[in-house]
Amino acid sequence: MNTNHSWSDFRAFKMLLRPISILGCLMALVHADYISGKLFSLISAQNDRQNFVISPVGVRAALALLFAGAEGQTAQELKIALQLVGENKNDALEEFKDIKYRISKKGTTMRIPVHLFVDRKYPLKSEYQSLTKRFLKSPAVHKHFKHSTGAAKSISSHTESASDRKVDDIVRDSDISSSSNMALTSGFYFRGDFEKPFLRMSERQPFQVPGRILRATMYRKYDWLRCGELPALGAVGIEIPYKEGNLSLVIIMSTRLNDYSWLQQTLFKNYDLLQLTENFTLRPVLMQMPQFSIEYETSLLGLLENGLNVPTVLHDPDFSGLSKKPDLRLAAFKHKGTIEIHGGCPDECPIAPTYVETGYEKAIPFIANQPFVFFIKDETNIFFAGKLFTPMALY
């Protein structure tokens, strides 16, 4: 059976799937999902990397740590930027209380450590510590900032320990100075087994990028999966459930290879990612996708002023809710992590047979053999969002 389908020839899929209207995905998004798409658009615009991934949940939680200690104009700017609701901080932070930042199950590992580090010269308010421990599971951490090398190493070691050694060197000497007194970190790591594992294709398969064809390690499986057309985006999508955490991987791929960049920009800027899959239909599918791993690291200080419009955080901050001692200023805001997508087998995945599995004679082919965007979500949160242009091997 020939499985090297091209999504430029999409007639078979259109005949089998009814078009899905995404008019309900509003241009003016609200709450956490609005921030997820906005963060992706803003951060990806900072660089021209072909492969890219962030943790919107992690970035938002880190900013919530700042909000918890902010007062006055600083608090108001952060509240608006994060789309928080509630008359007081307890109400505004309530939505963070039940978010999973850590999964440790057989075959599934997720770590999203977020920390606010403060110089030991600044006594921390017990109210702040109680608030952030209750809602974000991350009270502020005292560190010595006098020597930048030692401070960077200590902060990185703390994050590395909190991530079970999945995120290292998140802060470097160049990120802080001897005059620094506060740093914010947001790390992430994810690798998970799928509800139904994939099988490994015996040979590397074609993966099309504009102007050339690569060879990539690919996985395939027959399964009943939720999928659909997204006509307004000129794209198709599929949702693949993971074994743990009610998580699923969503892949969105343009039906025209050269429209990949437009799809990426439009999707994350203008659409509600959680609602995007609401009208997907459960269908028998022949799914094929590449193995890949993406590591990403960036400073988000510039994002505060130029993207999220919270300039007082950098220039005239009021963090009197964090410490009675004045002049606390954020010197570093680092985001770093890795996501690994593989076949979802406990060990090495078996080789995929070439025959059609019984019961899947009319399976719809979804062959992810060109650049696509993806996100990992549960019912209420976007944990990771990224784009894949060229697959890279895990090992």
TrEMBL record:
Listed transmembrane segments: none
Entry annotated with the keyword Secreted: no
Q: Which UniProt keywords apply?
A: Protease inhibitor, Serine protease inhibitor
Q: Which PROSITE patterns match?
A: SERPIN (PS00284)
Gene Ontology molecular-function annotations = serine-type endopeptidase inhibitor activity
Q: Which residues form the Serpin domain?
A: 37-391
Extract one GO cellular component term from the record: extracellular space
Per the record, the similarity remark reads:
Belongs to the serpin family.
Give the protein's recorded name: Serine protease inhibitor 42Dd-like
Q: Gene name, please?
A: LOC6898830
